[in-house]
Write a structure and sequence with these properties.
- The protein is about 45% helix and about 10% strand.
- The strands form six sheets. An eight-stranded parallel sheet has the order 1-12-11-10-9-8-6-2. A five-stranded parallel sheet has the order 17-18-19-20-21. A two-stranded antiparallel sheet has the order 3-4.
- The radius of gyration is 27 Å and the shape is globular.
- The longest helix has 22 residues.
- With about 750 residues, the chain is an alpha/beta fold.
- α11 links the parallel β11 and β12.
- The structure holds glutamine and zinc ion (ZN).
- It comes from Dorcoceras hygrometricum.
- Keywords: Amino-acid biosynthesis, Metal-binding, Methionine biosynthesis, Methyltransferase, Transferase, Zinc.
Length: about 750
């Protein structure tokens, strides 16, 4: 009986890699320093797995930035603008592709499936010359071997690599990227050859695209690729690893018929249907890597339940052909619970981070061969039981209220154009009203005030007066700039989800539960462990204080339920929508309290609505239905004269535009920095949009200050497609990462542009 880990977090338990990377990028430490920290991290991870008794330990799952970029480096597919020539890609070219350099911007980054991890998108075309240009996989294999640990080198599989690529600039959009298979396979063969020569007996190809909606041509590419690799792969055992969902029936057939493959890995947590496919048609003689330990969440495994699943699989594939594994790489979970001394003991007993998941995998594998660690299993089942019955998890009133929402509908009684009329009577805004998205620059001083208040180093009075002073400054600035609808600037918030999570019941926070988002960036998602409720108002104090400082409308500023859900570790003991409905009810109470307190414009950010979209189209409708419903629940009870705004952090919503309209917000502001065309094309194609809309008129992700003319130009382009009376003028997103030196002139130009156009309309 054996155990396998698909992949492991690379940042380190205290984000050691992050700090080493950033210090290297800042020129504060050398390449050798960075390499040393990295080698130490790899060694300790391998040792940890080896000590735990894991049989198939992965290597090459470490990365200085991202494993897809590593594959681009392996293949030598460096876009020509980075001027690379040579034999082995070094840090300078590698990090230029990842982050750009003084003269060339970075390559594009996009989300890795439905996770919050982002990868660097390969740019390919007919002219790319592929050559073996990074020996990282082989080097890491040898490195582990020199430590006495025989590992399974992991490569992004050739077909998934191509399916995740995009045509390079200047290459036809329709360029058949899969036609490059013949050109990249020779490099894969070289890598395989070297790995074999170094002594590797297993190799893992990650082919997660197999869980997507693929057509028959795409599926055939898998057959073609592995047939082509078959002879190189003789003498080495191949695992094809899939994750994040179940493998659809046709893909399952293709996958399990691939020649020369010894074993297949499946996500049995998210891929519940895969179990049936395995039961009915798993090929005999092949090894099943059964991903029963969840790599996407922080919950302790229900070991008894997993054991039952594994025992039934044993009956199908045979005792010696079953390997216990994780559902996907542990990259997507937090690193080690050991570093959470302050976390509540009971809650802690319900959790398992990456380090603990390794132990779970091993314990399950041992239990299957009759070496069950009774103590470990009984502690686990006691924790499972306490989680089920704990009063901290269960709040009957909330459960009842949320259950009643299912199947119901919530809509404001009046349609949006009538509401906008009623609101305009009250607000009396000019055409092309100007506003911002919420946050203003977060200064070092502000962070200090928040930190010291949290640590009880300054009194509540001191804290309140500092924050009020800051709000006052931001209000005065906006009045001076002559912005029409103001914000308070969010100085009291460290993070738009954490701020609410800290005030809601049912949320826990970690000290070191970081998960890599991209490059050196990590996020620390809150843990939703129980029924969610709002003990008391969360934002009314600050919003009313801010409103009292100005006669102009001050936006109440909330994070929406779907975004709170999508940016947290969520419960696995109830469906996502149920948790979302609970959060929606809490936010609804807040919206209504703000309205009662005299706030007439309320923004409910749904920055991450799109992020929760399931991987396969067939499941989109169900998700969008409850997500949009949750948003409407928050504000369906307000008066016509209360104006509800929402904000979204992406422009690509062409495919979900009808759901966005169905949110029935009065005004939506959206990121639009990179392409007016894409966003506007939706409306040009005839989609009717009657609510207010503010496509961002400048990119806040860059320090660049846009000129009045440039902004006016963009607004004009929007006016060509959208009705004058629904268009709002605002930046792309919140301003918290910018400096005042950038924000002031940019907003000045934005307001001038709006005023200029008003005179021309
Ligand atoms: N109101 C938030 C802010 O301005 C929105 C942030 C976001 O969309 N990510 O910071
Ligand atoms: Zn945003």
């Amino acid at each position: 009986m054996a155990s396998h880990i698909v992949g492991y977090p690379r940042m380190g338990p205290k984000r050691e890699l992050k700090f080493a990377l950033e210090s290297f990028w800042d020129g504060k430490s050398s390449a050798e320093d960075l390499e040393k920290v990295s080698a130490d991290l790899r060694a300790s991870i391998w040792k940890q797995m080896s000590d735990a008794g894991i049989k198939y330990i992965p290597s090459n799952t470490f990365s200085y930035y991202d494993q897809v970029l590593d594959t681009t480096a392996m293949l030598g597919a460096v876009p020509s603008r980075y001027n690379w020539s040579g034999t082995e890609i070094g840090f300078s070219t590698y990090f230029s592709m990842a982050r750009g350099n003084a003269s060339v911007p970075a390559m594009e980054m996009t989300k890795w499936f439905d996770t919050n991890y982002h990868f660097i998108v390969p740019e390919l075309g007919p002219d790319v010359k592929f050559s073996y240009s990074s020996h990282k996989a082989v080097n890491e294999y040898k490195e582990a071997k020199s430590l006495g640990i025989d590992t399974v080198p992991v490569l992004v599989g050739p077909v998934s690599y191509l399916l995740l690529s995009k045509p390079a600039k200047g290459v036809e959009k329709k360029f058949p990227i899969l036609s490059l298979l013949d050109k990249i396979l020779p490099v894969y063969k070289e890598v395989i050859g070297e790995l074999k020569a170094a002594g590797a007996s297993w190799i893992q190809f990650d082919e997660p695209t197999l869980v997507l909606d693929l057509d028959s041509h795409q599926l055939e590419s898998f057959t073609k690729a592995y047939a082509e690799l078959e002879s190189s792969l003789s003498g080495i055992n191949v695992i094809i690893e899939t994750y994040f969902a179940d493998v659809p029936a046709a893909a399952f057939k293709t996958l399990t018929s691939l020649p020369g493959v010894a074993g297949f890995g499946f996500d049995l947590v998210r891929g519940s249907k895969t179990l049936d496919l395995i039961k009915s048609e798993f090929p005999s003689g092949k090894t099943l890597f059964a991903g029963v330990v969840d790599g996407r969440n922080i919950w302790a495994n229900d070991l008894d339940a997993s054991l039952i699943t594994l025992q039934s699989l044993e009956g199908i594939v045979g005792k010696d052909k079953l390997v216990v594994s994780t559902s996907c790489s542990l990259l997507h979970t937090a690193v080690d619970l050991v570093n959470e001394p302050k976390l509540d003991k009971e809650i802690k007993s319900w959790l398992a981070f990456a380090a603990q998941k390794i132990v779970e995998v091993d314990a399950l594998a041992k239990a299957l061969i009759g070496k069950k660690n009774e103590e470990f299993f009984s502690a686990n089942s006691a924790a499972q039981a306490s989680r089920k019955s704990s009063p901290r998890v269960n709040n009957e009133a909330v459960q009842k209220a949320a259950a009643a929402l299912k199947g119901s509908d919530h809509r404001r009684a009046t349609n949006v154009s009538a509401r906008l009329d009623a609101q305009q009577k009250k607000l009396n805004l000019p055409i092309l009203p100007t506003t911002t998205i919420g946050s203003f620059p977060q200064t070092i001083e502000l962070r200090r005030v928040r930190r010291e208040y949290k640590a009880n180093k300054i009194s509540e009075e001191e804290y309140i007066s500092s924050i009020k002073e800051e709000i006052n400054k931001v209000v005065k600035l906006q009045e001076d700039l002559d912005i029409d609808v103001l914000v308070h600037g969010e100085p009291e918030r460290n993070d738009m989800v954490e701020y609410f999570g800290e005030q809601l019941s049912g949320f826990a926070f970690t000290a070191n539960g970081w998960v890599q988002s991209y490059g050196s960036r990590c996020v620390k998602p809150p843990i939703i462990y129980g029924d969610v409720s709002r003990p008391k108002p969360m934002t009314v104090f600050w919003s009313t204080a801010a409103q009292s400082m100005t006669k102009r409308p001050m936006k109440g500023m909330l994070t929406g339920p779907v975004t709170i859900l999508n940016w947290s570790f969520v419960r696995n003991d109830q469906p996502r929508f149920e948790t979302c409905y609970q959060i929606a009810l809490a936010i609804k109470d807040e919206v209504e309290d703000l309205e009662k307190a005299g706030i007439t414009v309320i923004q409910i950010d749904e920055a991450a609505l799109r992020e929760g979209l399931p991987l396969r189209k067939a499941e989109h409708a169900f998700y969008l239905d409850w997500a949009v419903h949750s948003f409407r629940i928050t504000n369906s009870g307000v008066q016509d004269t209360t104006q509800i705004h929402t904000h979204m952090c992406y422009s690509n919503f062409n495919d979900i535009i009808h759901s966005i309209i169905d949110m029935d917000a009065d005004v939506i502001t959206i990121e639009n920095s990179r392409s007016d065309e894409k966003l506007l094309s939706v409306f040009r194609e005839g989609v009717k949009y009657g609510a207010g809309i503010g496509p961002g008129v400048y990119d806040i992700h860059s320090p660049r200050i846009p000129s009045t003319e440039e902004i006016a130009d963009r607004i004009n382009k929007m006016l060509a497609v959208l009705e004058t009376n629904i268009l709002w003028v605002n930046p792309d997103c919140g301003l918290k990462t910018r400096k005042y030196g950038e924000v002031k002139p940019a907003l000045e130009n934005m307001v001038s542009a709006a005023k200029l156009l008003r005179t021309q309309l």
